[in-house]
Write a structure and sequence with these properties.
Layout lengths: L13 H10 L7 E4 L2 E4 L5 H18 L4 E4 L14 E4 L16 E8 L3 H14 L4 E6 L4 E9 L2 E8 L3 E2 L9 E2 H6 L4
């Protein structure tokens, strides 16, 4: 007799996830909650760290009085708690001692992608669009380009722009220009 096996994955709520964190169940694991699933995070390569730190320093200097620049920290969405590489969020920053930034607090999210490009351009993009994140960018380290998504609609963005040269600027601070070439040649500080 052949039995057909069906698999049902348990979806976790934000409350479940927070209780696991508080109980110490996830202490030795680098994970994030994506669409109700607890997902292991890919370890950072030296490329990832350097590009991320350079861009964070650059943005902190230029956005210091306008937004908080958070690096690799959780944000809270409807059924997810991802940890984007960079989150540009509303001030005052101290409000986040009571909760992680919610979608309405977020101006712009950035993922640095050297080994997670497929996940960043698909699963994370859909997640961020569904949450109404106004702007989302992926720094594609291997192709040396920045992909910018704007105007969320459903689980996608209406606008997708790709840059290998020139400047990008966040929608909420268009005067803060980021030279794309400098991101990839180590001069973004």
């Amino acid at each position: 007799m052949i039995f057909e096996s069906t698999k049902t994955l348990a979806k976790w709520s934000l409350d479940d996830y927070h209780r696991m964190i508080e109980a110490g169940i996830l202490n030795d694991r680098k994970v994030e909650l994506l669409s109700g699933e607890i997902v292991e995070m890919t370890p950072e390569s030296p490329f990832h760290r350097v590009y991320g730190e350079g861009l964070v320093n650059y943005l902190r200097t230029r956005l210091k009085d306008r937004a908080w620049v958070s690096e690799a920290r959780p944000i809270t969405l409807a059924n997810s708690e991802p940890e984007p590489d960079i989150a540009i969020v509303r001030l005052p920053w101290f409000q986040y001692s009571q909760h992680h930034p919610y979608s309405e607090d977020i101006f712009w999210l950035i993922e640095i992608s050297d080994s997670t490009l497929n996940k960043d351009l698909n699963e994370k993009k859909q997640l961020y669009a569904q949450a109404g994140i106004l702007e989302y960018s992926v720094v594609d380290v291997k192709a040396k380009k920045v992909i910018v998504f704007q105007q969320p609609e459903g689980n996608n963005y209406r606008i997708q722009l790709e840059y290998t040269t020139g400047n990008i600027a966040p929608l909420t601070s268009p005067d803060v220009e980021i030279p794309v070439e400098k991101i990839f040649n180590g001069q973004i500080i």
